[in-house]
Every structure is written in C-alpha cells, then in structure tokens.
Amino acid sequence: GKAETKPFECVGTISEVHTALALAIARWYGHHRPCLLHGYEPPVGAITANPLNTLAPRHNLSAAETALLLRRRILIAGYGREGKSSHRCLAALLPWSDIKTAANDQEIFAALSEAETAGKPFDLVVKSPGIPTMKLDGRCRPESITSQTDLFLQRYGAQTIGITGTKGKSTTATLIQHVLAASGRHAVLAGNMGIPLLDISDQLAPDTLVVAEFSCHQLENIHQAPHVSVLLNLYQEHLDHYRDYRGYQMAKMQCILRQQPGDHAICCTDSPDLAALIKEFRPAIASTIHPYSLADSEAADSLFASSPLKGGHNRSNCFAAWIACSLCGVSAEEFGSALATFHGLPHRLELVGTFGGITFYNDSISTIPEAAIAAVEALGEVDTLILGGFDRGIDYSPIVRFLGMPESAGSRIGSLVFVGAAGRRIRSLLTDIAGRQVLVEDDYPHIIDWCFRHTRPGHICLLSPAAASYDAFANFEERGDTFKRLIAAHTIDKH
Question: How confident is the model at residue 429 (pLDDT cuts 50, 70, 90)?
C-alpha cells in the first residue's frame, strides 16, 4: 500500500519498504539487479543517502554496520556539540529508530531507568565525551554503550591517523594535517579540537586521510582503532572522570590495543608511564610499534631546523608528526618545507607581546604540572609564573620540586601567583619561598596589574597554570583570552 500506516504488523510502511530495498541493493546487488528491481532507484532519504557516506555504497556492509542498522531504540547520552552531531547523523541514517536525547546526568539516568522499567532497554547508548562511562555502570548493558568515535572508526578507521596523549595532541594533529595538505594529500582535520567526526563524513573519499585528535573520553569505548595511532605521553589528568589513574591510562591505550596487524603505533619512550604500559601490553599489541624519543629528534636536527615551535616538548612532538607523515609517503624535504610555514595554536606558548619591557606568554592549555615545567624550560627567562585554577586532585609534587631545584629554570622565577584551589594547594606544598614575591589571588584584573608591577623588565610573565580552568572560566580558551584582553587593556590604560 501507499499509506504510512500498517494494516498488519508484518506489513511495512512505504518508507520501510524503500529502506529494505535500498539495504538489499547495497548489500547484494551492487553490480546487477534482479529483474523486479530493474529501473528502481531508492528515493532520497532511504539508506543510500545518509551522512555516513552511504556506509558502504553499492557494496557489502560490514557486520558492525549491519548491526547498527538494526538498532531500534537509541539514547544520545550528552547533548553538547558532539551529541547534537550524533543525533543529526543517526536520525538521518536510521529514520525508523526511536532516538531519545538526554543532556545531563539527571536526564540520562531518568531515560535509562524508564527504559528498564518499561522492559524496553536501549539497543544503543551513544555516550558523549563529557559523560564518564563509570556513571553508566549498572544502568545499561555494557555492550550497548558506544560513541561517535567508535561509530566513525568502524567505518573510516583504515584511513585515520589518530593522535592522543595528555599534552601536545592538538598541535601535533594540526601539524600532521598541515604537512599532508602542503605535500598534496587530501587530509581533513577533526575530533577533539571541536569538529565532530561525523560532521566531516561528506568530505571523505576513499583516498582521504583523516587526521583526528582524540581525548581519553573519545577512545574508551572504541572497538576499532585508527590505522596510525600516535600516543605522545601519559601524565595524571582527568582524574575526576575515572576511578583512578589506571582507568585514564587504559582509556588512552585503546588507540593501540584495538589495532590490527598492519596498523602502526607511534609512542614516545620519554614518557615513563607510557613506556611502562607499552612494555606491559607488548604481547597483546598487534600493530607495528614505532618508538621515538627527544634524543631521536635531536639526532635528526636538520629535519627540524625550520621549526617555529619552541621547546624540547614541541621538538619531540614534531618528530612524532614526522614519523606519521613518513608512513603516508611524505619525504623529508616535503616535511621540512611544510614545517617552516606552520604556526602554533592559540593558548599554547602563545606570544602575547612585549609591553613595558615585559614579554607575556599565554600557555592556558597547561592543565598539568609537566606542561608548566615544559613551558618554563622552553622559554628560559621566566620571572613571573601564574599557577593554579580548578583542583582535580592531581599530584603537584613535580612542579614543587621544579621550583625548588637549584640551577633549574624554575629556581630562577622571582614572582609566583597562585590562583584557585589548585594554586593554594601548590602554595601550601612550597616550604621555601624565601627571596620570591608571592601573590595568592583569584581576580585576574588584580593579577595582571600585580604582574606588571613585579615582573622584571627584560623578562617573561607566563600564564601556565598546571590546572583546569573550570572554577572561574568555561574552558582554557576563555581563560587565555581573558589573560590577553586584560594585558591589552592595561597597556591602553597606561597610555
């Protein structure tokens, strides 16, 4: 019939019939049609016109893709940028499914409870990065949990270069995409830096390279890993989302543990925790491992002579980018030429300017002590350091040792500003601050005014907080932008 109603349960509506025919054509009749389907083309809106690039256009669907198409009841758990992207895609891809959205913990728990009470649990729970997996424990079947990253990699993992690590992933991912594009490859950048993976699916051809930055939250539920995975380092981070540091580490390690023979894993041996995990899981890793270190990058000094990025940590990340690009056929000459035209990202050792003889740097991306240490060492002439923010319970002993270590760049810092609960905890751990000027303050206008008055001319004032920003700002970008705006306003006021 033509009506969008069912006279009997076993009879499909017209849209369901079109979808069934479209699936049959995609799976079995890519090159020829049975006589009853001669001249038939599924209408726009059937399964062959969908945001996942038609899943497997005109050829066989994988088992995972077929299973996805059978999901009837779906919950989008978390409704931020990625949750909305997942909703748009799945609504177009699975028009016959009942898709519910839940924006926060309370809504998610209510939806899961109602579904269980009604005896109709969700077939698929698409978890957004902001929702800790541990909060779903006992509330839904573990096998029903997936994510946008998981769905994307099951379709495009073979053409994806995935970059993760506690720090450096955005710069490294952006550099890899920049080099690939400059050397004539079609490469698309997406992922954790703000571009949902499913939103780029219509840009992808079979020879397109996807360069994706992945957070721990995006990786923890994957079943297939990128063809090339880059794991830069591992330090304590996001402990508010995991039961312990091990949980965070294992989320990151999925990008390697889920790889297959023929895949490639690029890992930094300078990161002790990462090196220990690679050694522990070596028998279970199926991919080819490409270890590297800062010493390796220094041995290849001519390759990075044109780099505009400061610091050993950036040199190390450039070397990881070089390995990834070389696996894609990029020559040393092509890499060096592209590196010379690369510009660092905002809020990552970003030069704000020199005012009144004081040079200001914005490193608001720094949310762990190791990042702040690397920033101070990279710049060398830091006289004022702004530390602190939201306290997530990470270990601050590394920055405390660094600030008190004789002859270190940290020991030469003359002025320290401590912000928020994290800053106050760092201050409490510093037993010897003799000879240093100290400010404990949460008000950034006051902080900037103090820095102008106490930083020695000819030296650097550095914002590298070693802490998250969520106690006072929406994110690290807002914190960095505030820092830059207040510096500019102070300069205008003085003139």
Answer: very high
Residue 34: per-residue pLDDT:
75
Q: How far is CA 426 from CA 345, 372, 391, 394, in A?
A: 28, 13, 10, 11
Find where tokens 């909305």 sit: 84
Token readout for 356 is 């009144």
Residue 354, H or E segment: strand 350-355
| pLDDT of 48 | 38
Give first-to-last CA distance, the chain, whole Å: 79
C-alpha span between 202 and 114 (Å, rounded) = 36
Is residue 312 packed enough to be buried (19+ CB in 10 Å), middle (13-18) or exposed (0-12)? middle
pLDDT band at 68 (very low <50, low <70, confident <90, very high): low
Give the amino acid at 480.
G
In tens, the pLDDT along 432-481 reads 888 999 999 999 999 999 999 999 999 999 999 999 999 999 999 999 99
pLDDT band for position 301 (cuts 50, 70, 90): confident
Of all helices (H) and strands (E), which one includes residue 67? helix 63-69
Pairwise CA distance, residues 407 & 391, whole Å: 29
Amino acid of residue 258 = R
Q: Can you tell me the distance from the alpha carbon of 38 to that of 386, in angstroms, rounded to the nearest whole number?
A: 71
CA 156 to chain centre: 17
Residue 494 burial by Cβ neighbours in a 10 Å radius (0-12, 13-18, 19+) = exposed
**How far is the C-alpha of 363 from the C-alpha of 348, rounded, in Å?**
5
Nearest to 328 by CA among 187, 449, 117: 187
Ranges 99-108, 237-246, 373-382: which has the least confidence: 237-246
SS3 label, residue 412? coil
Cα separation, 83 vs 74, in Å, equals 12
Other CB atoms within a 10 A radius of the CB of residue 178 amount to 20
The stretch 150-176 carries a mean pLDDT of 97
How far apart CA 265 and CA 257 sit, in angstroms, is 10
Among candidate residues 441, 437, 447, 458, the one with its CA nearest the CA of residue 482: 447
